[in-house]
Amino acid sequence: MKSNQNTLFQGDQVKDALKQSFIKLDPRILVRNPVMFTVEIGTVVMLIVTIFSLTNSQQGSFGYNFTIFLVLLLTVLFANFAEGIAEARGKAQAESLRKTREETPARMLVDGTEKQVMSSLLRKGDVFLCEAGDTIPTDGEIIEGIATIDESAITGESAPVIRESGGDKSSVTGGTKVLSDRIKVLVTTQPGESFLDKMIALVEGASRQKTPNEIALTILLAGFTLIFVIVCVTLKPFGDYANTPITIAAFISLFVCLIPTTIGGLLSAIGIAGMDRALRANVITKSGKAVETAGDLDVLLLDKTGTITIGNRKATNFYPATGVNETEFIKACVLSSLADETPEGKSIVELAGQNKSIPMVKAPADSVFIKFTAETRSSGLDTPDGLRVRKGAFDSIRNIALKAGNVFPDGVEDRVKAIASNGGTPLVVSQNEKILGVIELQDIIKTGIFERFERLRKMGVKTVMVTGDNPLTAKFIAEKAGVDDYIAEAKPEDKMNYIKKEQQGGKLVAMMGDGTNDAPALAQADVGVAMNSGTQAAKEAGNMVDLDNDPTKLIEIVEIGKQLLMTRGTLTTFSIANDVAKYFAIVPALFMVAIPSLRALNVMNLHSPQSAILSAVIFNAIIIPLLIPLALRGVEYKPIGASALLRRNLLIYGLGGVIVPFIGIKLIDLLVALFI
Amino acid sequence: MNTEYIGIIFMYVATVALAIPLGKYIAKVFKGEKTWLDFMAPLERLIFKFSGIDPNREMNWKQHLKALLTVNVLWLFYAFFCLLSQGHLPLNPDHNPNQTPDLAFNTALSFLTNTNLQDYSGESGATYYTQLFVFMFLHFVSAATGFAAMMVIFKAMKDKVTDKLGNFWDYLVKIITRLLLPLSFVVAVILAFNGTPTSFKGKDTVIGLQGDTVHISRGPAAAMIAIKQTGTNGGGWFGVNSAHPFENPNYLTNMVEDISIIIIPISLIFALGFYLNKKKLAWVIFGVMTTGFLLMVFPSVIAEVNGNPAIAHLGVSQPTGSMEGKEVRFGPAASAYWGITTTVTSNGSVNSMHDSMMPVSGLAQMFDMMINSFYGGVGVGFMNFYIFIIIAVFISGLMVGRTPEFMGRKIEAREMKIASLIALLHPFIILVGTSLASYVLMHFPNADWGTKPSAWLNNPGNHGFSEMLYQYASSAANNGSGYAGLTANNIFWNVSTGLVIFVGRFFPIIGPVAIAGILANKKFTPESAGTLKTDTTTFGIMIFAVIVIVAALSFFPALTLGPIAEHFSLK
User: Fold this and answer.
1) Does the structure's ipTM exceed the value 0.90?
2) Any domain includes B260
3) What predicted TM-score, i.e. pTM, was given to this entire model?
């Protein structure tokens, strides 16, 4: 379902997330996030100190301690809210997909007789029947019949699609609607185990597994947290030595400010948002790892038809033989194609129609249409007035002409060769066994695809075109479309071999496929994207399913993966860079009273030790909600090369991370000073 | 320009100029190419034959570490027992006594680990036997140990290497025969010709001008001093180290010794470039380290040359700069420069008293040891840097949207775990050690120990705190220099710094070797346009930021209470 909700925060989602913020305070849940868990411990300690300070002002005033306690509690709540809102958004997205599979009546076939049951009762291996107007109750594979199906509920695409038994387009999805005909469908999944169910689990926190990269980052963040545990604990004896009593509130504030709470609080939200973005692109991933891997891809295998070209060859030029009138030639071409239902035939009529000087050609009544057969490799028509028009492959038409004792003009033969070497397909047209000329058919490369490949190249991703064409044609199209490599006259095992070869060189390879014979290669690829329309085998083998059946989706998937990692990296950098300013706020505040010369370190000229500490923790807390939109949307990926990207992100998030808190803390201090 | 400045600029330029060809030579040795020192080969073969070692047997990273740790344990026991019984061993013309067990523990560990924190004084606390066959021996093998561990990493960084990472004994022996021995020989000859003693005769007795009898310690010192510098050891023959007129007689020897301090650490960076054929990477690492080094040299030299503002307030002019604790023959600039070179490299020899330097210099020296990877000790400096590279690669890899990889190998949870632990360890031992000392000092000032805690510090307040912080930073970094004000030869300091030295030495060797070994076993991914290039200025800036932020963030509060507070109070 194409999402048209661009607002990040929707009322009901916010409400849900707010509730979650409190539920997630449960230490058993929070312990999964070591950074925020330590903040929670600090909050509890502050609560005790606050209560203690009611009767004893040794640790500072009640109001001050209470404020610190509140701010720390807010820090944890903000982090929980970030995770909550990411989950809520993911869930909402998944819900809208799940709605399509509400209870629907199913016509189950039991021993040949039809029985009405609810869709939830269907089990793997059951068979049901669907006719025009029925909603398909659950995922399955057509075992008998052919039907047009409206899949708009899943893909948002309103044009109906054809699904039939046997071929590579035998798969139907629950929630879609049969528009015509009648099919028998074999149920392929148990209830609750469909891909969609798996995806829903991925965006809901509970069963979400951390990805390897997320684990590694969590370890690093835990390392930083530990360093600051040491820094803060050892500061106590240092302070004693220097005759500088440090309050518990100051210790805990220093600690919470220094540990990477910003990234710690947003880390899981970033991960969930990554899944969510994939879902919004109508891609169901079976694991979070697959999305991360997508960001690392080195090689993409793309089918030519549908991905690089718009599917079919089109007529691009008419070349009459010398001495043949162009208009007459075009008329003959149109005549030969009027009954030709193939896209090529249609495109000939279309091209002729663009030439306004040529009158509409209509086949005379009682014309006999000659269908294309594999033997004759030509088609055409015979009119009642004895006109025989034929169009076909070069050698078959040449045979017709030669048999009738006519010559095959040299000029036409040269043209045929020229077209072939340009990646086109020549069709020769004859009328009454005399050669009239050649029609040039060309693959039409999708607009914008060259730029997309250029973008991929800058990301370091190599594109490989897979086609059944001969090497000459393949090479031409490959060059024109800007792909880096091609596999011509490809058989299914060629894909497999290519993937294995690249993987042996250490590359990560992705491919897209739909057929059962693609399944082994989909399984072998590091990222295998199966089309939703594909066979069950293909869907099982891959690790992602594209609901839109859009072969260019791989490109989006790569960017989603990169965004996910980048968002983590940049926010980590930002979080750690923030510490510089926080130090300059808190450290002078700790020692200024006992060691007056250290006032020189108070570079921000903060109002008082207390206001400095408060400003730092407040900044530390509010930066989390301020960055939630970035965490959810993801940092924008620009394919400008790794070094340039690093430079850019270091400047924005590294240098920015150093400067922003100086400004923020100073501003907050100006406000806080009004109240102290 | 001030000739003093010219002196240190010349020293640095000469060091780099010598380090590049030396790096090339080192790479050649370990690539197995022909060098002019190949005449050492028969000696090496003899050693291998005698020890029953097959130098061609390739080891994986675990076997390397096993060999390294085993031989180090042996050396530790050997050194410990020699020191305990040195009074009865031969070559003791001055009849110096045995070391106490806690001192022997500290000294043995200290020399084994390339630290050379000397809680004893060479004139009275050691004999010619222990100086030569314990200390000088350990000078060679401890430097070679760090170097050999680093060679394992170099080898593991090569393309398409798996678990065959060369032979530890082969590295160890060749480092000594092909590099340390020849280089030390050259330095020792220069020193000997400039007046450093090389005699077995024991104390000399002279009658002074005032008619009093003076006993002058001497001994076969030149050889030991040479390896003390080139192996980033720092443990000198005489108590006051290279401030002693025999250990460092004149400005020329000062230059030679100071160049010796950083020449191998710098040349190893270039050796990496030549060995892996990644010269650009070497220049980036050199750039990062040099930037850090110079950022420490400038403030320190300027502070010393300008003199002490507290003295200036008294109306006393200081035309020669701050001279407290410095030798007239070296002057403030060369002393400050030495202070930085000796602390960045984990050398720890001194030609002036760091305790007497300006707080800015003390800050720079402590910061050097807290970072411990701007050049760093022989081998180990690069290994510390390697940990920072891994962390920097991880964060910046994420920033460009790719699972982080270094040299074609992906960095995952296991490597991050090791890297985080090692990065954590250094602040841990320094801060915990210092806080323990502060705690004991504040709560048990009159504990009935050999030296009462209240008598540890020569100075109260911030400077006293610096003395303790410096001692642990120096131990953890395996540097070995001291803030002279601290009374360190007692059970608390001997044992606590001994432990810090031990932990600070072996874990930072085990960690990087393990990471490199694990990475080498991973699938090798060739570079693409999406791969983060590690040999760029941008990445250099990233490493620099990681180093400075990790160190600054961990030590900022402690430094604030020490040299920073002292600095601001002087104004």
Assistant:
1) yes
2) no
3) 0.85
